[in-house]
Amino acid sequence: MSSLTLRDLQNFGTTGATTALAAPIPFSELCPFIAQYKDITFKIKVIYDTSFINIARKYRLFPDRFCAHAQDISDNVMLKMLDYFLSLPVRPSELQFTFKESKPIASSKTVIDKIVSTGIEKQHCQMPHAPFVIIRINILSETQKFDCAFLPATLKNLYFL
Fold first, then answer.
1. % of the chain with per-residue pLDDT over 70
2. How many CA atoms lie within 13 A of 134 on its CB side?
3. CA–CA distance from 125 to each of 25, 75, 135 (Å)?
4. Helix axes 75-87, 106-116, angle to 10 degrees
C-alpha cells in the first residue's frame, strides 16, 4: 500500500487514478484539492472532526453530490456535515454516508427532523427496522422535497461492490 502524496492529490481530479492510503487523511488536508468538484465520492479513509463546517466554508465546498463510504464519522460530526450541506444556497441533490459502525434506529429520526427543520418537505423515507450503516438522502430542488433511506449492514456489500 502506498502513501498519498501532494502530487497524488494535485492529479486526483485529472487522472482518475486511485491511490491506496497507508493512513487516513484529515479532511482539512483533502478539502483544498477536491472543493472545486461537484461530484465527490470518498472511498478512502478520511478523518472528519467538528471543524468540518469551517474547512468546507474556507475552501468553498459546494458539491451537487457528496458520498462518503466506509467512514468512521461520529453522530455529532455527521449532523454538523448535514447542517453544512443543508445551509448551502444550492443544496446537494444527493448525500450519502456509509459508516463503519452501525448507527442506532433513533438517529434516523434526528436526521429527518434536521432536514425538515430547513423547510424541505419529506416525500418518502425508508425507515430502519434495525441499526443502519447507510444513509441516502436525495433532495429534489424543483419541489423542495426529499427522499431518504437508512439501510442495514447486510446491504452494505451489495451496495458498493
1. 83
2. 16
3. 33, 19, 11
4. 20
